[in-house]
Every structure is written in structure tokens, then in C-alpha cells.
What does this fold into?
Amino acid sequence: MLASTLVVCPYAGAMSDATPELSREQPPAISFERVTKTFPDGTRAVHELSLGAPAGQITVLVGLSGCGKTTLLRMVNRLVTPSSGAVALDGHDVAAAHAVRLRRQIGYVMQNAGLLPHRCVVDNICMVPRLLGVPARQARQSALALMDRVGLDRGLERRYPAQLSGGQQQRVGVARALAADPAVMLMDEPFGAVDPIVRADLQRDLLRLQRDQPRTVLFVTHDMSEAFALGDQIVLLAEGAQIVQAGRPSDFLTHPADEYVARFIGLDNGSGSLHTTVVDGVPLVVDANSRPVGRLDEGPA
Amino acid sequence: MRWLANNWDTVWQATLAHLELSLPAIVVSFLISVPVAWLAHRFSWSRFTLVTLGSLIYAIPSLPLLIVLPLVLGTTVRDQINVVVALSLYGFALMIRAGTDALDAVPASCVHAALAVGQSGPSRFFTVELPLAGPGLLAGLRVVSVSTIALVSVSGVLGINSLGMLFVDGFQRGILAEVIAGILATVVIALAVDLLLVLAGRALLPWTRASARRSR
It folds into this structure.
């Protein structure tokens, strides 16, 4: 309801412009109001979906490939226009915003980093600030500081993307998305193409960045364990972007909505259930096949 | 060798004239074909027409074209402009297909990434698509450059000064050394211009060498 009303937000004195000025201190909530997307070829990627992503939290959209989760993500920065319904940031319909300006205010990390191969690391990171008119020297200084924050060696600043490892490329992708200090971040399977150890590092770093400065993050993945690792909220989607279950990660384990959910998170065959055992006097957590997954710390977590 | 020593100035003048005809034609054909290639790349309906047009132009025999063009341009047959326009047409014909392919080869993910960070219209073309099409455009331009430098010689038949004049004159007067000098000089300047293009490519497209090093 709130999204269907067109709200014109004052934008730095330019009254003719409806692009909301996204506040950095108070990140906006994202809301989908009965959105449907039918592509020209007749595929219905999303049908009548309503969904809210709370401000300052990570909402993970998880589902099998082709379930419409990427389409949903792209509606937020208007790379995809809904056939009906509306997407709003803090109640401001994005359809009323200036598309280019909106995209510059929203961080976007894509699969395989999506870096520009003809620009070196620092120039890739500086893209949005430069588009926004930040002087080159200043943009470079901020980019170097960002490289520190995302765990990239400053010595890599003049490398081209092809000279980096997959994990480093992905870090550059995250740094680029953060460069304009956006209040909203869209992340489309950003860590899908890197090996598990690097992925765990990247996930940990993302959580650290989020703790330092909360942003409203919409994160798409097909990996349930990644959803558990990152999500404040998890939305499990089936084909046509139908919501199977939405809630806190713990809700999925305590109250799986149905068989499908239980199977998706591995509760049905016991792989999602853990128990404790004591080996050589050390309490261990083991899975259904008695393989150890970790140590049980004494006392409250 | 003695002929060359005695006629050094003639060869030098012919070489300069040769470059004066070919270089503008190379530049003009590049500048015209890039926007047209963009049209062919961007709008699928125009692609067939434009690329076919290129092939058709290339099929026109050069000598008749040099004789017919003045009727359109209002110049004389021996006018430099006449030759430059004819050569540009052939260059354009070669470059249009190479240019279209080069723009097609720009990875969609890069264009998408630029769009997603809020880079719009013309600035995206000039800062993302055009540089990424660079290697393909350079490859096309190298073919155009060599082909144009070779083709200039035809104008020698019409009596326009170029290295082509050395073949025509040497052939008519039976001076083998002159013919060979003409051929060698043509090859030398074709290679020299090609080398300059390669060096320009290295300077302007530094990332292509970076990727090559990595993949080795």
C-alpha cells in the first residue's frame, strides 16, 4: 500500500527530481508490494510477491537457480521493471526515481565480480565516486582506504582484474559497491564462484563491515549454509518467486514450514541435525554421520 | 642499387605522396566505420543491410571507381581527394564488419556492470564499450592499413604520384630496379605503419597484455 503511492522526496533542492536522498545514518527498508514480472517471452519470473527487507539488516533471498531471486534484486535498482506492483525504499517508489542516480546510490555486487577488465583495481573501485564527480585524487585516497577495509593489499591498486585471483576480484567488487558509501547493497551470488575457504573469509568480512556500519543488504544465493551464515532474515523462494518460508534463521530449524523446507535445509535426512558427544574428554558437536563439525564451548555462547 | 642511388629523391617523393594518400584514407575509414558499426551492433535490423553494404562496396573494381567518383565529387580524376575518397570507401568496407564484430565481442557482463553502477548512454559507450572493443578494432584497422597502402598503387595507372608510379614507369620503360624499388618501399611503409599501430595499441590498451601474461 505504501509503495503504490508515489511519494516525492525533496532532493537537495531539486524539486522536480523524485530520487530519494538515501540517508546514510538511517538506511531505508526495502519493500516489494505485489510485484509481478512477466518477461516478453512469456516467462513469469515473479508472481504477486510482497516482501519487506528491514532497514540495516541482511535479508537473504535463497532458492534454486531460476526461481526469480535475481530478478527481484534487479527490481530494486531498476535494472528490471516490474510488470505490475512496486518496489519502494522507505516508502519511496523507485519507479519515481531517476534510474541512473538511484543506481549510483545503491551498491551492487554481482556474480563473478563484474569488474571492468580494462580498468585497474583502483579505477574499478572509484567508478561510482568518479561518476558522482569526486575529484580523482580524493577518490583514489578513499579507494585505498577501502582496499584496507575489504582486505586487499594496497600494492594491488594498479593491477588489472585479469591479474587477480577470484577471491581478490570479489573483494574489489565489494569495495566498488561500498565506494560511494551506499545505504543499500544488492549482492547477487557474490561469493558463488570462489572456493569454500575464500568464501568463508569473504562472508566473515562482510559481517564485519555490516557490524561496523549497518546497511540494508539484499543478498541472493542458492546456498542455504550461506543464508544461515549471513542472514538476519532468510526468505526461501520456490519457482516463480513464491515465498516458501520467511523468517529468522533459527525459525527455519525450529519450525520448518513444510517438507520442502525441511528437505532444503537438510533436516529430513538428518544432515541438518547435530548432537554432542565427548571424545578424549573434549565435548564435540557431530552430525548425523558422527562426523565432527566443531567443539562445544562451555558456558553461554 | 645504382638506379636507387641515382633516383633516391624520386623514391622519397613517391613515398611521401603514397603516405599522403593512404594515411588520410585510413583515418577517415576508421572514423566513419565506428559509428556505423555501432548502428549495426546496436540495431539488429540494420546489421544485415550495413554489413552487406560493406561487402558490396568492396566488390567494386578500383579502377572504374576512381574514374566514376569524380562525376559524383565534382573533382578531376587526378585529384588527391578523388583517390582518398575511393580508398576510404574500401577501408570502410573492410572496417565495418571488423568493427561490428569487435563491438559484439564486448562481454555483456561488463556492459551490465556499468549499467548497474549507474553509467548511462554515451559515457558508457566511450568509457566501457569502445575501449573493450579496442583489440578487435585494432585488428580491423591493421588490415585496413595494409590493404589501403597496397591499394594506393592502383592510382599510379592514372598518373597520380605514389609508389605505384614507380611500377607503372618501371614497367613501361623496362627498368626492373624501379619496379622492385616500388614494391619494396610499399612493403616497408606498410610494415612501418603496422608497427606504429601495434605500438599505439600497446599504449592505449595496456590491459590486454596484462591478461595475456596471466593466462600464460
